[in-house]
Amino acid sequence: MAELKASVTWQEDKAFLGVAPSGHEVQLDANKEKGASPMELVLLGLGGCASYDVVSILQKSRQEVTDVRCELTAQRADTVPAVYTDIHLHFIVTGKDVKEKQIERAIHLSADKYCSASRMLVDGGVNITHDYAYIAE
Fold it and tell me: Which Pfam family, just one, is annotated for this protein (predicted)?
């Protein structure tokens, strides 16, 4: 098992600087004008992980994809801890002659097999759903 190291350093008030294992920095802040909240980053992490998988699987399937966008909607519990209870991922796939069966397959493989963020959240009790729209060029 590989060990990863990251850090989060308090800057001021409710602002923190996160440094990922890759060295990339992320501004975290309770003031949404200054940075993303930790829970927003969890949501973006899920969207990024799933989108990476979908693009990769479609490319390996030789689908001519020109754009993929993942729009996420989420609900959180009303009580502390205000965990995510439901998250929906809506993929908008644009391309030339992309087979919709391949889009469906890519989304299902990501959700069921490859997306670590998705598996972690589902195993933690989050209801995650998916759908997609295809825009032909």
Answer: OsmC
* Amino acid letter for position 1: M
Query: 25 and 45: one domain?
Result: no
The rounded distance, in Å, linking the Cα atoms of 113 and 104 is 14
CA distance 121 to 126: 5
Q: Is the full-model pTM beyond 0.70?
A: yes
**Structural domain boundaries, residue 53:** 38-136
51 three-class SS: helix
Reported as type and span, the H/E element at residue 42 is: helix 38-60
Under the banding of pLDDT at 50, 70 and 90, the label for residue 32 is confident
Cβ-contact 97, 64 below 8 angstroms: yes
User: Taking the C-alpha atoms of 98, 99, 103 and 105 in order, what is their torsion angle to the nearest 10 degrees?
Assistant: -150
Q: Are residues 18 and 45 in the same domain?
A: no
What is the domain-level CATH number for residue 97? Answer: 3.30.300.20
CA separation, residue 40 to residues 1, 78, 134 (Å): 27, 16, 26
